[in-house]
Hints:
Elements: H1 2-64, E1 79-80, E2 93-100, H2 104-122, E3 126-133, H3 144-158, H4 163-172, H5 184-194, H6 198-207, H7 211-222, E4 230-233, E5 236-237, H8 249-262
Parallel strand pairs: 2-3
Antiparallel strand pairs: 1-3, 2-4, 4-5
Helix pairs in contact: 3-4, 3-5, 3-6, 3-7, 4-5, 5-6
Amino acid sequence: MTNARTVRSTREKAAQLRAEAARREARRRSIWISIAVAVVLVIAVAVTVVVRQAQHEQAVAGASTPGGVPAHVLPDGGILGVSGPAPAGKTPVTVTMWEDFQCPACRAFETGNHAQLEAWARQGIVRLVYQPVAFLDRASTTNYSTRALIAAGAVENVRPSAFQAFHDLLYTHQPDEGSAGLTDAQLVDLAAQAGAPRDAVAKALSTQQYKGWTVKRTETFSAEYSSTPTVLVNGKVVTAGDPTYVISPSGLKSIVASAAAAQGLPAPK
């Protein structure tokens, strides 16, 4: 009997030891599983943070680095001027103007044609597309063409409704060739006068925010044209084959009237 009880007791203790070992093993596995899950969660969170940070940096780069492109510009980099509703079912005549804010001939074109172009645009007869470039930096001592275009890009980016007024003010206050041009502070003042946020334009100028954009635009222009202003009506150059010729108001009106008639639009007044 004693031997039987001893054997049974030994077996029970062995069973208890095995059960305890199994419980320890289960706890150990549970701990390792918890650790593994925690590690996976940490990695997932880290990856999410890295991805979001990269997305944020990419977004910031697109908006604030020298290679940034202003919001609201057309796919080809052009900027829309003032506009009005076109007659039902009709497409306005597109007048495109390649220009440099330091260019005296551009100012002459604006002086002679701006009033009638704006009137036609508000009537819905014309769609104004400005294509500003910066190839006359050599005509100032401070790269004025580039700085003026960066400021224009900043205005278009934050307050497109103010672009037309700022554009016009740049020609009204165009500096003499060979001079230092307007200062950054003066450009900011004009932008604010046009209705754009002062701080945004000042920041764009101080960081050269749209420098890359100005370079690419100017390269695109220089690959096809040789001087400003280059004016196109419905994609066709209207400078009579002479890149130095600035079309007269009467000449432009005649060309636009012909295009308008072909498109079933009212004659420009």
